[in-house]
Amino acid sequence: MADWSREDVVALVEGCEIYVLDDSAALVPLPEWLLAAGAVELTQSIGERMELVHPDDRAIPGEMFLSAITAPGQVIPGEYRLLVDERWFIRSTRMVNLIGSGLLDGVLVVGVNTIESTVEDSDALASRVHGEFTPANWLVEILDERAIILEIDGMVDEIWGCPASELIGSSATRFLAPECFASAAVMWSNLMANPGAASASRQRVIRPDGTSLWIDSFLVSRPEPGGRIRVMNFINDVTEQREQQMAIEQLANEFQSLAEQVPAAIFRCDRSGTVSFHNGLWESVRPADAVAQRLHDLIHPAAHEELDAELLRLASATDADRGAHLELRGAEGAVMLSLKLRAVGQPGSDQVTFVGSIEDITSTMTLRRRANHDPLTGLMNREGLAAYLQAALAEFPEQLVIGFIDLDGFKSVNDTYDHAVGDRVLASIAERLRRAFRSDDVVARYGGDEFVVVCKVPAGTSDRMVISGLERALADPVTWDGGSWVAKASLGVARVEPDDDVADLLRRADRNMYLAKAERRLDEAAS
User: Fold this and answer.
1) N-term to C-term CA, the chain
2) Among the CATH numbers 2.60.40.1120, 3.40.50.300, 3.30.450.20, 3.50.50.60, which is that of 262-366?
3) What is the distance between the alpha carbons of residues 207 and 209, in angstroms, rounded to a whole number?
4) For domain 143-214+221-243, is the CATH number 3.30.56.10?
5) pLDDT at 129
6) Contact 436, 428 (CB under 8 A)
């Protein structure tokens, strides 16, 4: 035991509320010199004190007392919520076992109530206390080596359903349900074999009226002079708490069962993407031989930045904009994943979490590409072009410029050679056009030997960019085994005008192309 002096104790208790408990948790009178130190004596029994402790915190004082009993001279600190005059306070408490110190014959309990703000109303305080307050049903038993009750204090009637006088001298196991006897015997044998040991258990008990309760027991054995062993048993009625836990577990099981019926991988994750729940189909989108503990483990590294940005945005988004749908490459790069996310919790708080689903849409994307792309050239087809232009008109109409391209004299390739050669020529022209323009420009095959180029350029930029790209694409002859063709084309450029739709824009570009074709024919005829 650490050495304690009167001065040490006085310094510990100054300005605090105090009481002393003996090793059976009964109140011990305070000496005058301690009261003169400026402390306030509390005269409530431990049972009465426990009635005011919040149910979620009720185990804390008991655990502190057990720790103090088993560690003489050490200060055991702790905090728990206490109801005082219908207000919630944080009770900052310290306990020190001074039995045998010559100063006090018991465990000194020193406490002070603190509260974050004296101006908060009861509703605001209650919002930080989870659950409604109900008095804590606690009692303390002192048992001998045969588990006979020697002393008992606390809410005896409320827990056992009979007065303390009927229990003194009886076995502490008298109310145990039959299925609990075996584990209780093992626990008791360990306590008897190891004086000073502590143990805890949850057991079902049957009261004299036949009703059942669930109790948590915290037991500590201690040797006494003469070789005797006494056991202190703190008992807490946890029936309501257990019912709540079972209800939560049932809801969790029902949710898990429901989640397994959803035809998609569903999950829950935090702001870092760490997954805390998923259903069985999560395994279907997990990379082979990989552990997927984070959402990022399913996504290709190149898309992590996009995913992080979306998680950050959703975490602070309002209710109207807390969902997102992303299409990202999978971790192995060969699959495409559809990721749907929704943020849950107070926007901007650290407790925001995300729920969502993730599906392999590789086959869907393949079908979508087939529907929107030309099978011969791999370019976007007319339907895909129309959809892209529709979005571009809404997003950047002032910067949009399109070029309508028609290959001049292509019919002669099919007539002179065959359609197989013609197809190879078209595929070659398509690839040249793709390389001649920027990666974010769109090249589409409009049909036959017609192509459309869509560029995003700064407002006021000349059409020269489109013209130069076409010139680069057609600079060299197209060759194949046994022949070649010098490609030429007519180009019509158009920009967006007020009230244009997709059809208006394409129609004007097409008309400009035919005007350019006719003008060149006139020039060729004149020469």
Assistant:
1) 116
2) 3.30.450.20
3) 5
4) no
5) 39
6) no
